Amino acid sequence: MPELPEVETIKRGLEKNIVGKTISDFDCNWRKIINKPLAAYKKILKDLKIESVNRRAKMIILNLSKSWNLLIHLKMTGQLVYGSKTKCLVGGHPIVEGYDCLPNKFTHATITFTDKSHLYFNDIRKFGWMHLLTDSELEKEIAEMKLGIEPFDKNLTLDYFKSLFKKRPNLKIKQFLMDQSLIAGLGNIYSDEVDFYAHVRPMRTVKSLSEKEINLIYKGIKKILIASIKAQGTTFSNYRNAEGEAGAYSKQLRVYGKWGEDCLCGGKILRAKIGGRSASYCPKCQK
Ligand SMILES: [Zn+2]
Hints:
- The chain has 287 residues and is of the alpha+beta class.
- 28% of the residues lie in helices and 23% in strands.
- The strands form three sheets. Strands 1-7-8-5-6-10 form a six-stranded antiparallel beta sheet.
- It has seven helices and twelve strands.
- It folds into two domains: 141 residues, N-terminal domain of MutM-like DNA repair proteins, CATH 3.20.190.10; 124 residues, Helicase, Ruva Protein, domain 3, CATH 1.10.8.50.
- The relative contact order is 0.14.
């Protein structure tokens, strides 16, 4: 699943390409993606303008004119592809080889703009969704998700961070980092990388961590997310135009997905199951 840096990369890519465009049509062939009948989507979306693009946790929000919004969750395999005559911008799960002509059999929704460019919502496993909501419905739907604080929220001070640790002392640190009700946006990739940065093993309980380790985790979250956003995330995003290399953070990963390989220290990276998820860690670098 794309995590905060990947979704932020999609958000920034869309921002550059679709803000200011006017919607001329909407189509959808998979009812479960949308929260109203297709006819209602078509009627409401026609002539609305994309005013801004935002992100909350791992979701994209398209703010539209007349106080409407599209709240989009890509889940495991969702993908947003912006296509015009001159460019194709892919965000989310990588495009399946051989299906790079759009729309393809994984395209479940299409927004058409008045300039004839399109925003395609593709999803192989169909867990993603695209909800059409008024401003107040959007606020309500997000509030009901009980999401935790954003990692870059200025209210996420070290003291506030420590208070979150006191809330859930028996969680393992990887579970703590992935718990969207505490801090929103980290998943499997960045929880492993933050644990490596802080030299703590992912299965340590929150209450076993020293003050120094908590400080390092706090610093690590921001530092790693910033570096990954700068590299345009890990593998999930690829631009097939001249806008530059994307998804380059995969080259900077230290442990995620590397179990069985050598760590930079020369030790072997191991894997552990924690709460149904795989964690990779180096037993020499992490205590
Ligand atoms: Zn190591």
